[in-house]
Amino acid sequence: MGGRLIDIARKVGVSEATVSRVLNDKPGVSQEVRDAVLTAVDVLGYERPARLRMERGRLVGLVLPELVNPIFPAFAEVIGGALVQQGFTPVLCTRSAGGVSEAEYVDLLIEQQVSGVIFVGGLCSEEAADHGHYLRLHRLGMPVVLINAAVDTVPFPRVTCDDALAMRCAMKHLSSLGHTRIGLLLGPIDHVPSNLKLAGARAMAAEQGWDWNPELVVHSQYSVEAAQAATVGLLAGGVTAIACASDMMALGAIRAARRAGLRVPEDISVVGYDDSVLMNSTSPALTTLRQPIETMGASAVDLLARAIVSGAEQVRELLFEPALVVRDSTAMIAS
Predict the structure, then answer these.
(1) Cross-strand pairs, 161
(2) CA 161 to CA 318: how far, in whole Å?
(3) Strand partners, 236
(4) Structural domains counted in the chain
């Protein structure tokens, strides 16, 4: 018993007396400390006292920003299957406008005594967002893994597709087709993956000796409609190709080009990012950078499972390479 109290106290950063009060269900301990102690009991593999025991079914929270973009249901399917294979039950949490917030989902997951949480995208990738709920999970000692790039102040391991390399590949492909006036259609200004893509584009331009024109960079929300509106400015700037931060944005760019009387790819080339489902069935089939979601999802679950079982130190980041998938939305520049 003494060894167990010491282990839990060290994990949470409280006294053994405090741990004892929680395990004996005594008053005088804040709810946050109580939650932290019980989470540590689970993480360290100790059995809860009968009075504090609940059927958790080895639950793992899976938090997604949306399900409209098909890349997120694809991640959910891969991660959910990998969790089940490891003996966990996924609890799917999806944000929606006016619905439950990410922070509220975290509260619910803590109440459900989940063993860990996987975030796919979300507020951890937005520099201007409130990250207090991530820091709360960290204080509780909850095992957490992030999928895709995040702000440095969120202290969890992450599984990431190389955003900078993706944009370099897109620009190299378009350059090989003769395009020199390439527009960038990126996510919000404070979005970390978009900033990495922008950095990759700037580095590529510097290496190739291309003139850098910030007027050919526009930002929008990650939706077809927002991207369509943002593309109008790029078209007015005379771009012959557009590299986009997501497939949904690429579809918006194609729609804007068509409404401007332009043909894709004869008049303007478009490259997406993700290679989400059905992108080979669009008209034209979309050239894009593929995220290796199967490998990324399985790796995220492996990291989380090891943390849950052993509490072992995690790698800071697993970085995966995207793959260029050339289809029909890009072509040689018209002479």
Answers:
(1) 320
(2) 8
(3) none
(4) 3
Segment holding 308, helix H or strand E: helix 293-310
Residue 254, beta-bridge partner list? none
Domain shared by 244 and 178, yes or no: yes
pLDDT digit string (tens) for 177-192?
999 999 999 999 999 9
Same domain flag for 174 and 252:
yes
Which residues neighbour 260 within 8 Å (Cβ) at sequence distance 6 or greater? 232, 235
Q: What is the pLDDT of residues 96-153, one digit of tens each?
A: 777 889 999 999 999 888 999 999 999 999 999 999 999 999 999 899 999 999 999 9
H or E segment to which residue 108 belongs: helix 102-111
Evaluate whether residue 171 is within a structural domain. yes
209: left (phi over 0), alpha (psi -120 to 50) or beta: left
Whether 98 and 139 share a structural domain: yes
- Calpha distance 249→230 (Å, rounded): 9
Cα angle 248, 251, 253 (rounded to 5 degrees) comes to: 110
Mean pLDDT comparison of 30-34, 279-283, 313-317, highest-scoring range? 279-283
CB distance 124 to 133 below 8 Å = no
> For residue 290, is pLDDT > 70?
yes
| Residues 18 and 82 reside in one and the same domain | no
Rounded to the nearest angstrom, the gap between the alpha carbon of residue 280 and the centroid of all alpha carbons in its chain is 23
Q: Average the pLDDT over 254-266 and give the result.
A: 97
Tell me: do 277 and 301 sit in the same domain: no
Residue 182 lies in a domain: yes
For residue 55, the model assigns a pLDDT of 43
- Phi/psi-derived region of residue 326, left when phi > 0, alpha when psi is between -120 and 50, beta in every other case: beta
**Per-residue tokens: 229:** 């509106």
**334 inside domain:** no
Containing structural domain, residue 18 = 2-52
| Residues 113 and 171 reside in one and the same domain | no
Same domain, 85 and 23: no
